[in-house]
Recover the amino acids of this structure.
């Protein structure tokens, strides 16, 4: 068992299922990647992996090495900061970081270098035609004149520099040469998933070849733990010492990786990463386009999936409020076949759902027509890479100034994500006016049972429910208002 | 010009060069303490057993189950300590406590072949507790009179008379929490008994000499049997000044007892729950202004939340007291300081070291009182800046008072303060749900350790026959660029190219008895010592060269590796040729350098003296935009002018200014330490103990526009090559962010209201502040104590003060000393 790291073969023999890729790389003597938090928050462990694009070709993708099991890398290709360049022969990214003061203590730097390299190599990165433009058409991204999207670095923390020199380094990068080794690998097929099935020290890591095999594994092993991007499981394994007897990796199952659109709606494979969905949808579902930049960080979105976010069933996941507002339903595949469950009926309690033990979320289905006016309000301390204290997904249709349909999804205000049906009822059939909004906002403020914790007080959570509709109303009716 | 501050022609100091290890950083080749584990054989891993109570007597510890875990080698307990069971310098920090003093306190340490085994085994150690009452807040501590250490009192003038004279007297309270250092590299130590029988410890420490001393006293050894090396740190910020000692001692003890290298590395949760943080403070204050807003009197009692042991709390408090007036002349001052003992981690040094906590008192006062005085906050600040001949409340003359005014003016000009203030007024009038504000705040920060003895530095400079130079000094590299500056100092002092000089890792067997790399003093102290060592060598080389050139030794010039002489037609000598000749003439080519800061004196019993060599000055101007629906905000633009003297290394200095500002802004706005203060079973537990719950500034908090300039004409006579310290002072420039947020929140309500803004000013805190402003609620935390009348106001509008005067005042400080 092996992987390719910086062009050399590295052995995965005798590696346990809970050993993360970071610890494994460091055990190989590659100490460039660091542990800063072991929960995918700081990015000091960022490395590049060769992942498949929609057409199967290679795209260099930055991920948190601390979160993924090392065994998930069997037959895969990894590049660390050490593999990008040498002190006497720096990679362009390393060169810019070094000369512009992008490193001070240097501990976060290899991770920044890898995240920055992934964006440097992004195939569709193009310099802005208008050098003064800092936002793309959706206004969600912050791009430099070279097309570098600053969100590529949203999952990397630096405690020394204050980021300005790092931004300058990122914005100074050119477009890689065609002769660049990593560019040349773009046209090659990405490494296929290995059919890993190994048991070390009593714990099994298995990558089934089909959805049916995955369901069989779940049905036959009570302790089996599903993982895709491992962005949740990795945290539990690292910080809580959670250990599974069987890890079932489903992130590369073809059946879970389709994205289709027809006249009835969109079907989005549950194991597509959020970054892949963002790229493939290309703005076709505006509400999701507002969600993605606010969902954790690029590093997390490169691993995290809808399946995982809904599978863990956390009340503070960011996708449920948006998907509830979109009236999504889930396609669940189990031993007895497939069934469809509206997301609004999916959650049953704190991290509980109607999903049976041996069922796997296969896809998220978003019906058409899409609402005309949508918003995603995430309330958090920090704009990038934070967990919401309250999240509100809003979707309304207006017909002659009257609300013909209103769907509001909420997170962070109860043991489960929920639909604000009372507020929706107030809105529907009423004119979209400040008066209606005031009344509906009062109903929205009564939704859920917000609690106080280290993220926010219950009073603030309630206040944010109350102001959400007012803010949305201003956003939909005013052009002069510039929001913070 | 002093010889210390004077630069030769073509100096290498002052050149803008990247960090000396930049190419190692970016390629992942820079090694940190824990990166050495893979290079070391048979390493044991250490993991603590942490208290689950905030305060309790440990009545029994049972190890059997833990010892039975495969791979476990031993569990270290108090019985194993051959020397003193203490991890601090105050002898109040037992390394293995019998009474746990905070939730997370390490009781004993498991050593195992793998980290996993040590973690599993630590979970199997059974501890019996007898719970004791725990104090979690400063308020509780004050009520219980739970204090520790010194209670400094600083007094100047007569506050009673000052208040009597004042047209406006206000009083209030202010409390805020501390800050987690969150250096990206957590605490780490790797200890082994070396081939010479000494204990050798690699430690991520800002204070290798003290780590050495603590390890020696725990092990019952002399200092010459213990060597500590610090390759570099992945950030320190003060968090590795005192805190590494105990961890190094555990690793060293384990290594001696097992004969194997022991690695101790805290993961983030351990680091956050076990190591000290910035002190939170509580203050009660009373302030008097004259009719023009000049400060007349300040009376305050400030109480720091020190946690369970003293650590550095006394000097932190002393610095807080000595910075309470920040950059402002206050004739009558009376300040009392107290140190609360609470059942939390032992709070410690953090960039600014009490200075920020003291300065926040006056900045919070000015921000809250300005609307009540009817004076624009920037104008109020500008008119109170120090003037000529004035002294601080502890009696040190502010000789560079003019720099505060110049920095203020340069920053306001650079920012276009007056024009933007007008634009903002227009913007705010046109927007109901979004408000902007611009604020300016000054910094005056004293440089030198308050304790005079610490103001010394040492260096060892070795010149080899081939001309290559190796320098050692007592300072540690934590990212602040000290090593870069020291290379530049050595190259300048020897007159050689930078590439001729190499720097060796900081080790206690090279330079002994060093001070912590702290108090922003690293470059001042070690730069002075490196320069001194280099000059000794140069003085020995001069006669050798003079003989060659046939000139007086004083006429020999050393410039970028070329040795020449004034008035000589002889071919210049290459540096390497000269060093070879010197060797053959038996001239010593190495020197130990030494530096002590002159002119300091301090009486801690009366809190008087001149404890600081000089003050670092700076001004920040910050504009923010606040969303009225959520309290969320963005920093639109920051302009900074900061006084670094004649910069030793501009890229490094600008990096320190920007980084310090953003770190300060993090504390001001989003970094929130939340302890469980309930009476439930988790009382005392730190709720924000991970990166997912404790949020540092990320890219999204970076100011959209960020302009930093260095103060012009800023030569510092008293420091190496005319430079000034830069590590800490810029952190306090971030007060401008909070003051701008306060003003933006106020803009949602009627003019003239005082806004009480919590610290950190999270979106939630800003929301409550703007809601209070919107509803016209008064700041219940500030009281008008005098019978003075409210200033007149334009009906429904702004304070009655002509626009022109407001603008002028913001741009041109009126030195306070110029008034009668």
């Amino acid at each position: 068992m092996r992987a390719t790291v910086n062009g050399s073969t590295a052995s995965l023999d005798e590696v346990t299922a809970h050993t993360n890729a970071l610890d494994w790389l460091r055990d190989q003597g590659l100490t460039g990647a660091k542990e800063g938090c072991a929960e995918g928050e700081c990015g000091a462990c960022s490395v590049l992996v060769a992942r498949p694009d929609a057409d199967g070709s290679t795209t260099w993708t930055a991920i948190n090495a601390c979160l993924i099991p090392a065994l998930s890398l069997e037959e895969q290709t990894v590049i660390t900061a050490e593999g990008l360049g040498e002190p006497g022969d720096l990679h362009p990214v390393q060169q810019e970081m070094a000369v512009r003061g992008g490193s001070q203590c240097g501990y976060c730097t290899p991770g920044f270098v890898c995240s920055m390299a992934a964006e440097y190599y992004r195939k569709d990165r193009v310099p802005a035609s208008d050098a003064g433009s800092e936002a793309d058409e959706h206004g969600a991204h912050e791009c430099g004149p070279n097309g570098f999207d600053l969100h590529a670095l949203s999952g990397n923390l630096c405690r020394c520099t204050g980021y300005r020199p790092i931004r300058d380094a990122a914005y100074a990068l050119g477009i890689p040469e065609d002769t660049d080794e990593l560019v040349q690998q773009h046209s090659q097929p990405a490494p296929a998933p290995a059919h890993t099935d190994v048991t070390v020290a009593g714990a099994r890591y298995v990558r089934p070849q089909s959805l049916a095999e995955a369901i069989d594994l779940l049905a036959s092993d009570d302790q089996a733990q599903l993982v895709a991007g491992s962005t949740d499981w990795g945290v539990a394994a690292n910080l809580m010492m959670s250990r599974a007897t069987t890890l079932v990796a489903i992130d590369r199952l073809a059946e879970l990786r389709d994205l289709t659109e027809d006249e009835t709606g969109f079907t989005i494979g549950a194991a597509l990463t959020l970054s892949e969905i963002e790229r493939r949808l290309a703005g076709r579902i505006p509400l999701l386009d507002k969600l993605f930049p606010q969902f954790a960080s690029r590093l997390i979105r490169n691993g995290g999936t809808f399946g995982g976010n809904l599978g863990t069933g956390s009340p503070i996941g960011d996708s449920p409020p948006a998907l509830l507002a979109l009236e999504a339903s889930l396609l669940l595949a189990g031993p007895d076949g497939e069934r469809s469950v509206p997301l609004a009926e999916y959650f049953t309690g704190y991290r509980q759902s109607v999903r049976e033990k041996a069922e796997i979320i296969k896809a998220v289905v978003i019906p058409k027509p899409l609402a005309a006016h949508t918003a995603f309000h995430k309330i958090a301390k920090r704009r990038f890479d934070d967990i919401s204290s309250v999240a509100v997904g809003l979707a309304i249709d207006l017909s002659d100034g009257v609300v013909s349909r209103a769907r509001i999804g909420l997170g962070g205000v109860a043991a489960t994500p929920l639909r604000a049906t009372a507020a929706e009822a107030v809105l529907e059939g009423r004119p979209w006016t400040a008066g209606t909004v005031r009344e509906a906002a009062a109903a929205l403020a009564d939704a859920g049972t917000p609690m106080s914790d280290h993220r926010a007080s219950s009073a603030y959570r309630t206040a944010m429910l109350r102001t959400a509709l007012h803010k949305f109303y201003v956003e939909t009716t005013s052009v002069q208002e510039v929001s913070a | 010009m002093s010889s210390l501050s004077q630069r030769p022609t073509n100096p290498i100091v002052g050149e803008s060069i990247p960090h000396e290890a930049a190419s190692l950083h970016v390629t992942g080749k820079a090694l940190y303490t824990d990166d050495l584990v893979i290079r070391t054989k048979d390493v044991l891993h250490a993991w603590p057993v942490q208290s689950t109570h905030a305060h309790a007597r440990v009545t029994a510890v049972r190890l059997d189950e833990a010892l039975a875990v495969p791979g476990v080698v031993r569990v270290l307990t108090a019985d194993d300590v051959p020397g003193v069971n203490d991890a601090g310098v105050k002898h109040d920090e037992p390394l293995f406590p019998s009474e746990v003093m905070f939730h997370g306190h390490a009781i004993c340490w498991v050593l195992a072949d793998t980290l996993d085994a040590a973690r599993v085994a630590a979970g199997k150690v059974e501890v019996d507790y007898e719970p004791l009452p725990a104090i979690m807040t400063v308020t509780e501590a004050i009520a219980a009179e739970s204090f520790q250490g010194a209670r400094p009192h600083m007094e100047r003038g007569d506050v009673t008379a000052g208040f009597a004279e004042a047209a406006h007297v206000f009083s209030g309270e202010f409390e805020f929490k501390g800050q987690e250092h969150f250096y990206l590299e957590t605490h780490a130590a790797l200890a082994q008994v070396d081939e010479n029988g000494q204990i050798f410890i690699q430690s991520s420490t800002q204070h290798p000499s003290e780590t050495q001393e603590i390890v020696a006293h725990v092990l019952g050894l002399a200092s010459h049997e213990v060597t500590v090396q610090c390759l570099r740190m992945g950030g320190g910020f003060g968090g590795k000044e005192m805190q590494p000692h105990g961890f190094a001692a555990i690793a060293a003890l384990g290594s001696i007892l097992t004969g194997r290298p022991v690695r101790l590395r805290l993961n983030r949760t351990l680091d956050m729950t076990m190591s000290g943080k910035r002190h939170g403070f509580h203050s009660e204050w009373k302030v008097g202004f004259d009719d023009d807003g000049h400060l007349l009197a300040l009376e305050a009692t400030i109480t720091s939340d020190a946690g369970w042991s003293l650590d550095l709390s006394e000097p932190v408090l002393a610095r807080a007291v000595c910075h309470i007036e920040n950059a402002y002349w206050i004739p009558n001052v009376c300040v009392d300081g107290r140190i609360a003992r609470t059942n939390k981690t032992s709070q410690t040094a953090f960039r600014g070291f009490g200075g920020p906590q003291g300065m926040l008192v006056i900045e919070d006062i000015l921000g809250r009182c300005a609307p009540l005085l009817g004076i624009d906050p920037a104008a109020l600040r500008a008119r109170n800046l120090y003037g000529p001949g004035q002294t601080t409340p502890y009696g040190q003359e502010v000789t560079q008072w003019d720099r505060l005014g110049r920095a203020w003016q340069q920053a306001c000009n650079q920012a276009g303060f007056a024009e933007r203030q007008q634009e903002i007024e227009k913007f705010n009038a046109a927007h109901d749900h979004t408000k902007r504000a611009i604020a300016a705040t000054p910094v005056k920060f004293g440089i030198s350790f308050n304790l005079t003895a610490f103001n010394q530095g040492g260096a060892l400079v070795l010149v080899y026959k081939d001309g290559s130079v190796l320098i050692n000094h007592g300072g540690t590299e934590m990212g602040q660029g000290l090593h870069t500056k020291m290379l530049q100092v050595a190259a300048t002092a020897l007159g050689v190219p930078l590439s001729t000089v190499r720097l060796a890792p900081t080790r206690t067997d090279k330079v002994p008895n060093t001070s912590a790399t702290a108090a922003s003093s690293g470059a001042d102290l070690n730069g002075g010592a490196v320069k001194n060592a280099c000059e000794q060598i140069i003085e020995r080389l001069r006669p050798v060269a003079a003989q060659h050139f046939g000139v007086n030794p004083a006429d020999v010039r050393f410039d970028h590796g070329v040795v020449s002489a004034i008035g000589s037609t002889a071919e210049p000598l290459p540096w390497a040729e000269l060093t070879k000749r010197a060797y053959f003439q038996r001239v010593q080519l190495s020197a130990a350098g030494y530096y002590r800061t002159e002119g300091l004196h301090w009486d801690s019993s009366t809190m008087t003296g001149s404890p600081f060599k000089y003050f670092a000055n700076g001004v920040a101007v910050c504009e923010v935009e606040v969303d009225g629906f959520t309290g969320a905000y963005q920093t639109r633009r920051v302009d900074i002018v900061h006084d670094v003297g004649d910069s030793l290394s501009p890229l490094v200095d600008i990096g320190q200014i920007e980084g310090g500002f953003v770190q300060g802004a993090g504390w001001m706005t989003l970094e929130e330490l939340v302890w469980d203060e309930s009476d439930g079973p988790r009382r005392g537990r730190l709720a924000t103990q991970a990166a997912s719950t404790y949020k540092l500034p990320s890219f999204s908090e970076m100011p959209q526009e960020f302009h930093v300039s260095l103060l012009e004409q800023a030569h510092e006579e008293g420091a190496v090559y005319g430079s000034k310290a830069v590590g800490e002072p810029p952190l306090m420039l971030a007060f401008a962010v909070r003051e701008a947020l306060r003003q933006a929140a106020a803009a949602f309500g009627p003019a003239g209201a005082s806004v009480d803004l919590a610290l950190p000013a999270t979106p939630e805190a800003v929301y409550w502040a703007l809601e209070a402003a919107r509803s016209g609620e008064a700041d219940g935390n500030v009281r008008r104590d005098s019978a003075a009348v409210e200033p007149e106001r334009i009906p429904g509008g702004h304070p009655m003060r002509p626009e022109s005067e407001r603008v002028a005042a913001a741009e041109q400080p009126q030195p306070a000393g110029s008034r009668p």
